[in-house]
Design a protein that fits this description.
By secondary structure, this protein is α+β, with helices and mostly antiparallel strands. It folds into two domains: 4-84, Alpha-Beta Plaits (2-Layer Sandwich); 96-136, no CATH class. The protein has helices at residues 12-36, 60-69, 96-106, 125-136; strands spanning 4-10, 41-47, 50-55, 74-79, 82-84. It is globular. It starts with a strand and ends with a helix. The relative contact order is 0.16. Residues 118-133 have a biased composition (Basic residues). Residues 104-139 are annotated as: Disordered.
Length: 139
């Protein structure tokens, strides 16, 4: 059935609390729980609070979705550029645009345009590029 990619986005407060290391730990835990439930998948932490699942088994996507929707602190689950929200919500608690602003404040993301007052040193250049690429496939 080919490879399916799905994403889980945690709430912004949880993303900030966990940061990248905490998100990596959570991704590992989720993978173990999913595997224990018979879902064979790869799980990657791609940003603080953002987790990617790749799977190729029939029915895996719906089982991952079911699992994610039952977890705490999830803002949305995404598959084929469609978002699904837990707790009967039909909108994100904090949408991507607001998140971008917040991520700039936190220094997780590079400003789009260089600032006129001489460039800041940007050791995170590489990370910023990767992050922008990752966002292109999203709404």
């Amino acid at each position: 059935s080919g490879m399916a990619m799905t994403f889980a986005t945690l709430t912004q407060p949880k993303s900030e609390e966990l940061g990248k290391p905490g998100t990596e730990n959570l991704a590992r835990t989720w993978r173990q729980l999913l595997e224990a439930g018979g879902v064979n998948c790869q799980v990657y932490s791609i940003d603080p609070g953002k987790i990617l699942f790749t799977t190729s088994g029939p029915g895996d996507v719906s089982r991952i979705k079911e699992f994610i929707m039952s977890q705490d602190d999830v803002d949305w689950f995404e598959y084929n550029q469609q978002r699904f929200f837990p707790d009967g919500r039909n909108a994100p608690l904090m949408d991507n645009e607001e998140r971008k602003v917040r991520e700039l404040e936190l220094g997780w993301r590079e400003p789009a345009a260089p600032e006129p007052k001489g460039k800041k040193k940007a050791p995170e250049k590489k990370k910023g590029k990767k992050r922008r690429q990752g966002k292109e496939g999203e709404l």
